[in-house]
Structures are given as C-alpha cells and as structure tokens.
C-alpha cells in the first residue's frame, strides 16, 4: 500500500506576514494520520516555516536546489546539503515553470536530482506535457522522455527514494484540471514505464497529480488507482482549502 502524499507548492508567493498567517492556519488543521503532508515555501521562508511548524507533522521542502550537492562557489544557488541542514526533506525537481521560464533542461535536472539524493533529500520529479503536445497526441511520448532521461542516466532504482508529480502544463494555474481518467491514464503509463525496468520500484513509488487541484475535485482524482496524492499550487496558499485536500487523500 502506498502512503498518499499531499504537497503544497507555494511558488514565489509570500511575505513574512502572509507566511506567518499560513503557518498559523496549518498549525490549526486536523490532518489525517495516514497521509504525508509537505509544503514548499520560497527559500527565504523555509526557516520561518520549519520553526513555525515545529511539532506538527508537516514536512518542508525547497522548490529548487543546485546541481552540486555540497556548498561551494556557485553564486545565487542553494546546495542540497544546506537545505538538508536546515531541516528540509524534499525538493522539487523540474517544475514546468522552471523548465519553461528558466530554461532548465533534462541534463540540468538529472544533476539536480542526483545532487538532492546525495544529501538524503527526496526529489519530487515534475513531468508533464503542454497543451500543444497533448493536442498533437504526444502526451505519453513527452512524459515518457522526461522520466526516461532520469532512468537512463541514474537507473530506475533512484525512484525507490523519490516521488513523481504528473502536472500537465495546461492545467497549472489555469483552473483547467485533467479529468480523473486523463490523469489516471498518464499515471498508469508512468508506472508501466518504471515497471518495465523494476516492478518493485514501480509499485512503491508515489505518483502525485498536479494542476488546479482543489478540495472540490481532489476526492475524485485521488480515488484513481495510480494517483497517490497531489502537488497543489494555488489552493495550498489557503490553509483550510489545503487541509480539505489533505483529508481527501486520507479517504
Ligand atoms: P496549481 O499549481 O495547483 O496552482 O495549478 C500546481 C503546481 O504548479 O504545482
């Protein structure tokens, strides 16, 4: 049985004051015991969140990390070892906003994935197709390639200590959600791709869905056999809404 996970990606949102508010809201939530809950604040707020959530079983992760695992001369970057020391346990790798807006490519993401694992962080590998790619019938090819680039370089075994988030780019922040069946179809293909290499790893890895998940659509999405929870953007900035999504994963 895979333990569900719900993770909140706060993106480039937050001030000290709004983060304090959110921490307070999260602190008051009754969270289901069978679900791993995590939040990904901006680098600036990681400390504030770790301190503020002390004693609450919510993991804290970073939205990005350097290609090198250890501290050193790499201006503007944050090393996975530094994140681990601060108390982070997870890191997003390859979110579509970083692939598309910052221009991160597979080569870079392979290094980030490996650097994170070298420091004991759990990478959450984000993969997904654009609307254009979906309409051209290329969804499985695109997602398969994004996943395949990691498997090819690092081996399928790395997914024993990683999470995968399928996030169709057209569903992120748009209010458009993949239907539960559309998401399930891609999740099943991802698991099959892993299973072709190692069935134990494929059965154990958590596959999260992301893209306009809300309390209102979470139950149906999380009810699909290969959807093990969600990566939540906009709705994770509201503690009550986020709590409701976490409870949906516990059902
Ligand atoms: P969204 O973002 O929930 O606001 O669509 C999801 C994500 O980008 O992780």
TrEMBL record:
Enzyme class (EC, first level): isomerase
BP terms from Gene Ontology: gluconeogenesis; glyceraldehyde-3-phosphate biosynthetic process; glycerol catabolic process; glycolytic process
Active site residues of this protein: 95 (electrophile), 167 (proton acceptor)
Catalysed transformations (reactions): D-glyceraldehyde 3-phosphate = dihydroxyacetone phosphate
Enzyme Commission no: 5.3.1.1
UniProt xrefs under InterPro entries: Aldolase_TIM, TIM_sf, TrioseP_Isoase_bac/euk, Triosephosphate_isomerase, Triosephosphate_isomerase_AS
Record bears the keyword Cytoplasm: yes
Record's subcellular location: Cytoplasm
Record-level Gene Ontology MF annotations: triose-phosphate isomerase activity
Residues that bind substrate: 9-11, 173, 212, 233-234
Keyword Electron transport: no
Key words, A-Z: Cytoplasm, Gluconeogenesis, Glycolysis, Isomerase
Subunit structure: Homodimer.
Function, as annotated: Involved in the gluconeogenesis. Catalyzes stereospecifically the conversion of dihydroxyacetone phosphate (DHAP) to D-glyceraldehyde-3-phosphate (G3P).
The protein, known as: Triosephosphate isomerase
Taxonomic classification: Bacteria, Pseudomonadati, Pseudomonadota, Gammaproteobacteria, Pseudomonadales
């Amino acid at each position: 049985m895979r333990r569900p996970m719900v993770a909140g990606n706060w993106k480039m949102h937050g001030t000290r004051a709004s983060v304090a508010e959110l921490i307070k809201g999260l602190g008051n939530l009754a969270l289901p015991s069978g679900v791993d809950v995590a939040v990904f604040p901006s680098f600036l707020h990681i400390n504030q969140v770790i301190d503020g959530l002390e004693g609450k079983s919510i993991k804290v992760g970073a939205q990005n990390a350097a290609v090198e695992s250890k501290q050193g001369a790499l201006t503007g970057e944050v090393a996975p070892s530094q994140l681990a020391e601060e108390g982070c346990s997870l890191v997003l790798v390859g979110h579509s906003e970083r692939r598309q807006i910052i221009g991160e490519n597979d080569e870079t993401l392979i290094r980030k994935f490996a650097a994170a694992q070298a420091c004991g962080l759990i990478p959450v590998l984000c993969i997904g197709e654009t609307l254009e790619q979906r309409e051209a019938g290329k969804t499985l090819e695109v997602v398969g390639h994004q996943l395949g680039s990691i498997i090819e370089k690092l081996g399928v075994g790395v997914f024993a200590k990683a999470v995968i988030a399928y996030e169709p780019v057209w569903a992120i922040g748009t209010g458009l959600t993949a239907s539960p069946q559309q998401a399930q179809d891609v999740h099943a293909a991802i698991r099959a791709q892993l299973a072709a290499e190692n069935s134990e790893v494929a059965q154990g890895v958590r596959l999260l869905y992301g893209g306009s998940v809300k309390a209102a659509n979470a139950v149906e999405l999380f009810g699909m056999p290969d959807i093990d929870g969600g990566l939540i953007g906009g709705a994770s900035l509201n503690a009550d809404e986020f709590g409701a999504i976490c409870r949906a994963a516990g059902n």
